């Protein structure tokens, strides 16, 4: 997939992107004065929404094109470019919440990344993730050569718990009805109606997960 400025700005106009953003902010329990780190901030669209809620936000990304666009929209003081190894230049216990929208599937060593995110969160800090679902019946929809691993909900929960978090919520969005565009759109519009339906509940296109940092003894 080619990541360009138009990609980042276009995706923010999609209904499913806006739904995911709202769900992520809910999982992270974002309120005024919450200190949030967005991993993979792209063009800064979610950072803007977080600021509108009164949160104090930092964004990191590896892509020059993403950070240039975010800088144009938000200024540079809250943006940092990081290396591909994912090392983050912040002190321990620096953030109330970390949000990563479609990031973890790109990471070759997601276990190391999760441990780094754990380090950065305050005690009882929140982690909110969105990622494609390996159980979605049409995986070609999110095919990307840059993806390292597509998780099932069970796999994602296990990875998060292994890193020291307590999972508070793990569910899927956007059920599959058909490859027909109109019915695919229905899965976005009516996603709430099918969120707890037995067949659809684990097969939505996107996994949403919310967790809290548990202090190690």
Helix content: 25-40%
Mean pLDDT figure: 91
Radius of gyration: 16 Å
Please report which band the strand proportion falls in: under 5%, 5-15%, 15-25%, 25-35%, 35-45% or over 45%.
15-25%
Cα-to-Cα separation, first versus last residue: 43 Å
- Helix count equals 8
SSE run:
HHEHEHEEHEHEHHE
Write a structural description.
With 217 residues, the chain is of the alpha/beta class. The protein is 34% helix and 23% strand. The protein contains eight helices and seven strands. It has helices at 5-11, 15-27, 45-52, 64-74, 110-120, 153-162, 181-189, 191-194; strands spanning 35-39, 56-61, 79-81, 95-101, 121-132, 165-173, 206-213. It has a seven-stranded mixed sheet, sandwiched between helices. Strand 4 (95-101), helix 5 (110-120) and strand 5 form a beta-alpha-beta unit. It starts with a helix and ends with a strand. The model has no long low-confidence stretch (mean pLDDT 91).
Task: Offer a quick outline of the entry.
With 217 residues, the protein is of the alpha/beta class. It is globular, with a radius of gyration of 16 Å. The protein is built from 8 helices and 7 strands.
């Amino acid at each position: 997939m080619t990541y360009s400025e138009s990609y980042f700005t276009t995706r923010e106009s999609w209904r499913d992107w806006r739904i995911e953003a709202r769900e992520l902010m809910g999982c992270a329990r974002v309120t005024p004065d919450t200190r949030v780190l967005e991993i993979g901030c792209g063009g800064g669209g979610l950072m803007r929404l977080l600021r509108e809620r009164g949160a104090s936000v930092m964004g990191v990304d590896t892509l020059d094109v993403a950070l240039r666009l975010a800088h144009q929209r938000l200024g540079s003081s809250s943006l940092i470019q990081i290396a591909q190894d994912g090392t983050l230049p912040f002190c321990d216990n620096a953030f109330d919440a970390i949000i990563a929208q479609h990031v973890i599937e790109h990471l070759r060593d997601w276990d190391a990344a999760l441990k780094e995110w754990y380090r950065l969160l305050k005690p009882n800090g929140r982690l909110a993730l969105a990622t494609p679902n390996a159980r979605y019946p049409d995986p070609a929809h999110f095919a990307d050569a840059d993806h390292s691993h597509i998780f099932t909900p069970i796999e994602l929960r296990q990875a998060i718990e292994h890193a020291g978090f307590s999972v508070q919520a793990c569910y899927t969005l956007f059920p599959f009805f058909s490859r027909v565009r109109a019915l695919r759109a229905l899965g976005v519009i009516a996603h709430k109606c099918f969120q707890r339906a037995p067949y659809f509940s684990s097969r939505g296109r996107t996994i949403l997960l919310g967790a809290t940092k548990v202090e190690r003894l």
